[in-house]
Amino acid sequence: MTPVVSIIMGSTSDLPVMEKAAKLLDEMEIPFEIHALSAHRTPAEVEAFAKGAKDRGIKVIIAAAGMAAHLCGVIASMTTLPVIGVPINSTLDGMDALLAIVQMPPGIPVATVGINGALNAGILAVQMLAVGDEQLQGKLADYKENLKKKIVKANEELAKVSFKYKTN
């Protein structure tokens, strides 16, 4: 099975955050791979990955990094594939990573989700892949319908909660 999404982390310590994207891709039955690569510690490996991803069948890259967070932009600078950046909250409440990823120079875009927003990165990757795949569009529609059902159920449960001055 050839992966179509690649999840790249600056460090394996990012895995607890990035598992959310991996679990969603699993649920959607999308083949993916996960690697730890560092723009600062393994730049040659990052370059080889980025330049070879398209030829290996990768369609979307989800890249996660904390602190200086150069990984996402470095990858984006070396490929024509869409790159989704996930800023990791490791220092400065993740704002350093968020700003490093979102403030890319013209011509080198990185679609950026919120701090530790791996699930949204996974959903965005699925949406990108679903553009040309009606079966995947159906899975995505079902996923979003289930989100709606969770809120409806939560409100039903809230209606049962009793407080002296609660009016609904």
TrEMBL record:
Occurrences of domain PurE (ranges): 3-151
- Give the similarity note: Belongs to the AIR carboxylase family. Class I subfamily.
Q: Which UniProt keywords apply?
A: Isomerase, Membrane, Purine biosynthesis, Transmembrane, Transmembrane helix
GO molecular function terms attached to this record? 5-(carboxyamino)imidazole ribonucleotide mutase activity
What is the recorded function of this protein according to its Swiss-Prot or TrEMBL entry?
Answer: Catalyzes the conversion of N5-carboxyaminoimidazole ribonucleotide (N5-CAIR) to 4-carboxy-5-aminoimidazole ribonucleotide (CAIR).
What organism is recorded for this protein?
Answer: Parabacteroides faecis
The lineage's top-level taxon is Bacteria
InterPro entries with a match to the protein in the record: PurE_ClassI (IPR033747), PurE_dom (IPR000031), PurE_prokaryotes (IPR024694)
Q: What's the protein name?
A: N5-carboxyaminoimidazole ribonucleotide mutase
UniProt entry tagged with the keyword Isomerase:
yes
Q: What are the transmembrane regions?
A: 60-88, 108-131
Question: What EC number(s) does this enzyme carry?
Answer: 5.4.99.18
Please name one Pfam family that this protein belongs to: AIRC
Known catalysed reaction(s)? 5-carboxyamino-1-(5-phospho-D-ribosyl)imidazole + H(+) = 5-amino-1-(5-phospho-D-ribosyl)imidazole-4-carboxylate
Whether ATP-binding counts among this entry's keywords is no
Q: Where does substrate bind?
A: 11, 14, 41
Q: In which pathway does it act?
A: Purine metabolism; IMP biosynthesis via de novo pathway; 5-amino-1-(5-phospho-D-ribosyl)imidazole-4-carboxylate from 5-amino-1-(5-phospho-D-ribosyl)imidazole (N5-CAIR route): step 2/2
PANTHER family with a match to the protein in the record: PHOSPHORIBOSYLAMINOIMIDAZOLE CARBOXYLASE, PHOSPHORIBOSYLAMINOIMIDAZOLE CARBOXYLASE CATALYTIC SUBUNIT
